[in-house]
């Protein structure tokens, strides 16, 4: 049975245009599909059902996807050997157009707003090419301090549980983070209006989880904007970062301590992201608010290996940064988190971080063998983007330990 082909809207529109160029008929309703099917058979000898055309172009509701056999037939009548060849030609054409438009934006600040809107609306899921293209457009908006353009570029839709798309969006919007570090509060004053109405951008920026040393004058401004859409998880995360900022400045953190204690008491952490759970557990340990079982309960609420690895990474990352009385070695769980199957780049980066944490713990335990075993599995060039520099320092420290 031929494989199914999932068409995106640009591909469907390009095929529609190609068929019109060949047969001067656009498939827009049942009658035009009958005409087109007849013309295809008359001119090329290829027989295709008008109902198939209606399904391909979304004229009738259809839950499935067209077969590769159908798409190969349609590609052939428009002059391409296979559907894959049609898609590659389309991608090459669009890449050329993108490069020219991006060149005009970068050099002259000139752009086609209608094209930008269409470009962004197609990004329901983000692949790597999308990420790099979007990043270059964001850089153009920042270079020209163009609020209208940045507003359009952040009008993204994506599935909230699509971790891969989010990871690629981090790279797309990294220029905003780098500008914030270099520019300070005046930059956030400029970009703040966009953050107020763009929950997707806020979620992406939250996922960077900031180098702890850069909190001052960086997260403080935009975390405290009066957003119209506010979830409990966002409120807790904002509290954690603002409390962390106060702790780093050695200010009074008694309210922060009470807030952490209240979260532990009510178990509000149960539905939070594992990285936020790791942060809550770390502050509980720093403030001596709970026993080892509480930390174990939070850890065990992370169901998948990825969640457990993310929790572990951010618990120790935060604790080792802010604990002033030594390294936290009094709590760990039985055994290790086992990697499951082949990992995509996003998952591997988190796994890489986890291995580095384990190697560092073995370093503190003065266990050369176990430290070396973990370190041998680490790829120092594939630490997750958040806290990359910190992991590089820890990696160097563990390598030096093994050499002495």
Features:
404 residues; mainly alpha
Topology overview:
Layout: H1 9-23, H2 30-44, H3 50-56, H4 68-77, H5 83-108, H6 113-121, H7 128-143, H8 147-153, H9 163-172, H10 174-183, H11 185-197, H12 199-208, H13 219-223, H14 232-248, H15 254-266, H16 274-286, H17 292-300, H18 305-322, H19 345-364, H20 368-376, H21 388-402
Helix pairs in contact: 2-3, 4-5, 5-7, 7-8, 7-9, 7-10, 9-12, 16-17, 16-18, 18-19, 19-20, 19-21, 20-21
Can you put this structure into words, describing what you see?
The chain is an all-alpha fold and 404 residues long. It has three domains: 9-86, no CATH class; 111-206; 232-402, no CATH class. The chain has helices spanning 9-23, 30-44, 50-56, 68-77, 83-108, 113-121, 128-143, 147-153, 163-172, 174-183, 185-197, 199-208, 219-223, 232-248, 254-266, 274-286, 292-300, 305-322, 345-364, 368-376, 388-402. The longest helix is centred in the N-terminal third of the chain and has 26 residues, at 83-108. The radius of gyration is 26 Å and the shape is elongated. 32% of the residues are buried.
* Uncertain stretches: none
Inertia-based shape: elongated
- What is the chain-wise order of helices and strands? HHHHHHHHHHHHHHHHHHHHH
User: Largest beta sheet, briefly?
Assistant: none
* N/C terminus separation: 61 Å
Number of strands: 0
> Which structural category do the helix and sheet elements fall into?
mainly alpha
Strand content: under 5%
Q: What number is the mean pLDDT? A: 82
| Structural domain tally | 3
- What is the tally of helical segments? 21
